Each structure stands twice: as structure tokens, then as C-alpha cells.
Amino acid sequence: MLALSASECKLSFRGIEPLDQRYRAPMAEMHDATEEYLETILELEEEGIVPIRARLVERLGVSAPAVSEHVNRLVDGGYTELMGDRSLRLTEKGRQLATTIVRRHRLAERLLVDIIGLEWEKVHREADRWEHAISADVEEKLVALLGDPGTCPHGNPIPGSANRADVSDHVLLSDASPGPVTVVRISEKIELDDDALGLLAGADLIPGHDTQVLRADASGVTVTTATGDQLVPTAVAHLMWVTSR
After folding, report:
1. Strand extents, DSSP E, the chain
2. How far is CA 182 from the centre of its chain?
3. Are residues 236 and 225 in the same domain?
4. pTM to 2 decimals?
5. Has residue 216 been placed in a domain?
6. Are 186 and 233 found together in one domain?
7. Is residue 81 situated within a structural domain?
8. Any idea what DSSP says for residue 157?
């Protein structure tokens, strides 16, 4: 039997580890970027927005050339199709992966708010870190622990839940008539805006909470909550859904 000394063993692996580390990080980053793009396309679809590259630029906050380059990778990888009108359509392969990531992200948000008690306005970015690490086994346990919730803390549907939310009577806050309403959902676009999240949290305009629409004008929608009268800018009010009480 060939025996190696400790120094010889160390030398034997010295050339292997850097090579492994050099390739592992970029591959992980590319994998996460692919999931992020697919997740964003699915979220745009949920909100009735045609997924085109310009919308991805807005949501992801990256340059148009970078989006075009990665979209080409998605098409080459069989995750999306580029349609005649330049819109993107998820393939079966792409939709399955996108749905899995969105589901795990929103379950993680529920866990962070309902069980751990993290502040509502902080959970989206934290769940971004969790979604790629949740396995199928952990996902199953989360569903059981949380009671198979139908929506995330922001009111967006959790794919695959047996408790599907009824959205038939949801209207945008910007279109709501004066009177009592309940906040039911906010756009994923707001979840990426720390200032908007802080405004909504501070004004008690969180899904499930009641408010009173007072009036709307060019500057936004004025509502009253437990914190007093609040002006919700038009750009934000157009990304929130409410239901009449």
C-alpha cells in the first residue's frame, strides 16, 4: 500500500481546491441569475404585464444589454421562447423552475413573518437569500408548518397552494372609489423599493389591514388609517390592490 505523509497529502490537494473554487462561484451565480429572470417573468405574467425585455430592465434594475444577453441564454437553454412580438414565453421547463422558485420564496416570506416575526418590509430581500436553498423536503415541511397558505405576506398567490385566493373583486387603489377598503395585495415591483415598503409599513397599509379612501388627485390617493391621513403617490397606488368592505 502506498502511504503519503501529511505534507504530501496537503501538496496533492493544493492544486485541486483553487480550481474547484474558481468554477463553483460563477456557476452558482449564473444559476441564481437564471432563476431570478424566470421568477420575474412569471411575476409579470401574474400581474397581467406582457414580459418583454424592457420590463425586465425595469424590474431587475440592470442594463438593457445585460438583459438581452441573459435572455439569449434563457432561449438557448430551453427556458423561454422569444415570440414574434418580442415578448417572452416560458417553456414547460422554464415555467416549472420559475414556479418552484416563486413558491419557495413566498413560503419563506410567510415563515419569516408568521413564525420568526421579521418585519414585513424586510422579508422580501431576506427571502431572496432563502429561496435558492430550500429543498423539496423543506418545502413540504414548510407547507405543513404554515398550513398551506394561499398568499405571501404581500398578498401575492403562492403557486400550488390548495387555498387559492379569490381575486375577482380586487381593484387597484388608484381606481378605488371613496369609502372603506381592505388592502389585499401589492406588486412585486414595490417589494423591490425600500422607500415604498417603508411608506406602506409606516402608514399601516399592509395586506389584510383596513383603510378609508378619502380622495384621489394628480398627486396620489389620500387614505386614512390608524396612523392618520396618508397620501399614497400615484405610482405606488397603481401597484396596490384593495377590495371594498
Report:
1. 80-82, 88-90, 171-172, 179-186, 210-217, 220-225, 228-233, 240-244
2. 22
3. yes
4. 0.83
5. yes
6. yes
7. yes
8. B
* E strand segments, 22-178: 80-82, 88-90, 171-172
Torsion, CA 61, CA 65, CA 71, CA 75, rounded to 10: 180
Distances (CA, A) of 179 to 182, 214, 221, 244: 10, 7, 12, 8
Q: What pLDDT was estimated at residue 195?
A: 92
Q: Which domain range does residue 224 map to?
A: 171-244
Q: Which grid cell is 128?
A: 431572496
179 with 230, same domain? yes
Domain stop point among 146, 161, 179: 146
Residues 6+ apart with CB under 8 A from 26: none
CA distance 180 to 187: 21
Given pLDDT bands bounded at 50, 70 and 90, which one contains residue 24?
very low
Domain count, the chain: 3
The C-alpha atoms of residue 214 and residue 222 are separated, in whole angstroms, by 6
The distance from CA 59 to its chain's CA centroid, rounded to whole angstroms, is: 10
| Residue 223, phi then psi, degrees to nearest 5 | -130, 165
Vertex 154: Cα angle to 194 and 201 (nearest 5): 50
| CATH code of the domain in which 195 resides | 2.30.30.90
- Per-residue cell: 24: 463553483
